[in-house]
Description:
- The chain is of the alpha/beta class.
- It contains 22 helices and ten strands.
- The chain has a six-stranded mixed beta sheet.
- Strand 7, helix 19 (511-523) and strand 8 (529-533) form a beta-alpha-beta unit.
- The longest helix is centred in the N-terminal third of the chain and has 50 residues, at 68-117.
- The chain is elongated and about 120 Å long.
Amino acid sequence: MAITTTRPHQPDYDTGLLKAATRYSAARCTALALCSVAGAGASLFLPFAIGRALDGVLVGYAAGHVGADATRWILVCATLIGVSALLDACDGVLTGTTNARTTAWLRGRVGRHVLAVGPRATARFAPGDLVARLIDNAAHAGVAPATLAALLAALVAPVGAVVALALIDGRLAVVFVVGAPVLVLLLRAFVRVSSDCVARYQRVQGDIAGRLGEAIGGARTIAAARTEEKEAGRVLGALPELSRQGHRMWRVQGRSQAQAVAVAPLLQIAVVAVAGHLVVQHRISVGELLAASRYAVLATGIGMLVGQLGALVRARAAARRLGEVLEEPTTPYGDAELPPGGGLLEVRGVTMVRGGRTVLDGVDLTVPAGGTLAVVGRSGAGKSLLASLAGRLADPDAGDVRLDGVPLRSLSREELRSEIGYAFERPALLGATLEDTIGFGAPRPAPPRIREAARAAHADPFITRLPDGYATPCAQAPLSGGEAQRLGLARAFARGGRLLILDDAMSSLDTVTEHHIAEALLDRAPHRSRLIIAHRATTAARADAVAWLHDGRIRAVGTHAELWKRPEYREVFGA
């Protein structure tokens, strides 16, 4: 039966994800918008109040005393300034908290999705690139809701200023409206051009982060090979392109800002000139002239939206990169449960294609209930990929994998992970302490079982020699490669279940320790089936049967002694 994995049609994540983020912060965004609009309203009313106060002072000066009307408007001006300052402070607090909460929500959503996708996520995206998306891109996308709310207020002020000009005299509004399309065209051109360079900048940034992650992971190899300079050149080779895109981005923003700033004063001068002409004709007062000049400044503030639009452009480009991660489909699980059984594993006609190359081609294997099957083969033969399929860390492109007659795809997540245990060549030491890393998983094994598993994996002796024993923090435990592998084996032993998969999990052990662990593995747990990816002849010799994998196909299956008679098989182990 052919099984294909297709990605469901996804919406435009650059807008869909930002809409979801805005809905998540809807209450704070509403408060922020109201605060910003109220601040814009105070800014719009202030020129009118200043104008009335000036007219009152001029009238009072002509009469020889300042009247109550002028005093009242001066107090109104002071109140508006105080309210504006308070609203500005509230705006700053709401903007900061909204950005932080939205960024945290985006990181949580994408992070949970990456974990739900599993190993496929790191197969498509480099770990460093994933970290860059979760940290940097999420922070850029997280400012979108607050920026949208601020943009609303930024639009209210120019529109309100044009209306105010019309209320003073319709000709003042006409002067501004005639020149406003130039500003709109400048903003539209800025958004179009900057979108491309921002996307390129973030893509190069992610590429550098991915290379840096690889270099950090291979730091010891790089130091041993004395290739620090060469590796630094590889990691930082994209810096010139990053610099080009960064300079291009700032040139676009600077040019748009300069063009807007150049056009805005011309409109302001035109409005003030017409207003001055109207004062001479006694159509408006001196106070209204002052108010008109202030409203002209507010109206041309539409040209100052470049910064906010730039933030939205960066947020949309960042959301698009987060959306690429969310497009990767999560692993679907069924609701089936396993019947009573001993762990019969059947791999039927499994085919896997990676990077255009067929890594596994129609593989058929059976691990008898309670039996041990070792898989051997040269590097690149597909052994680790087969181990991933056997425990459903990956799904085949074609074929089927069954445990005690039930397809792995049909099992629930809980049933699958409770019945299949894994130990890897390079185990991740997750958890705060050594006891935590052995018991890592849900549900957590009881402390006696954790210690029993550590003894079976011969990890108990070096753990108890540490000052804090099992309570030693993982980051402070000086572990060799073999000791780390023993912790990984102990974790697998502690989980129980009917199938245990060891992906070259004993490669760093000395022969004596390997012998004792293999004894515990094969003799003390007869109820568990075992699939072992083996690189050592001694490991293969202890298995009930050996599957010889060559170029993605099963070349032969038999006991180690039977296969050892073939020179090609001995060459797999360098013999």
